[in-house]
């Protein structure tokens, strides 16, 4: 009889834990330094999510290896609902084709929570250090005149800031030199110091420097203009590159094996938060991010699968690789 009672309690343990979730603080891990677009988004999300769940939501960043350090940590973590990852198309689609030996499987070693939005990039130059670059045509002419001489910073190998530059070089036939930095601060500082010529940065962290006149935006990597950057054309238009688009995404993952009840609750709460008018306005007008149309875990997984194949082809054609 005693053995039966113990066995029943042990079997009920996981169900009881799910019913009581969350009973401890929650951490959202990011793979890039403070100030990166992922960090900005996670911190904006943390406060309303904490109120909704009744537990503190802490944002922590473990940068390095193109986001792989944080991704691997979540892939190997216990699926108890205390650790989530604000991942990107870079960490979980681009890196699948860019790195030969990842310590985790970008598709299988996750639980999909929901897509958080599409994230474009914008081509930036320093108007003080490079006043001659007033348009995309100026950049292209300079690159053709001195093949390989123009360089661009990125937030790390495999980041969208890297692949946007690589794709731009591939479709234009230009030779550009990639200079990776460890995250947003280093890549932007290099542009401001004149150490690099170009930076295909994400829109969110670019808006402030553009508005302050520190950098000049020459074009976005979207098919339509970005509302948060009024007056800035698309690169497809500015560079006469019909159909040119390099857009990535942010998404929330959990460790593999997360109980479905926790997955569903987390999805429901975040979908409600990012669907609220004020949060959508912040995404569109302050970050240049397009809110997702499909906020289901299944929809997120489909996009994830498609992007692994899409970015694999882009990487193959562009010849981009980890240095």
TrEMBL record:
Keyword Signal among UniProt keywords: yes
Tagged with keyword Cell wall biogenesis/degradation: no
Pfam families linked: TctC
Signal sequence region: 1-17
Keywords assigned by UniProt, alphabetized: Signal
Family: Belongs to the UPF0065 (bug) family.
Name this protein carries in UniProt: Tripartite tricarboxylate transporter substrate binding protein
Organism: Belnapia mucosa
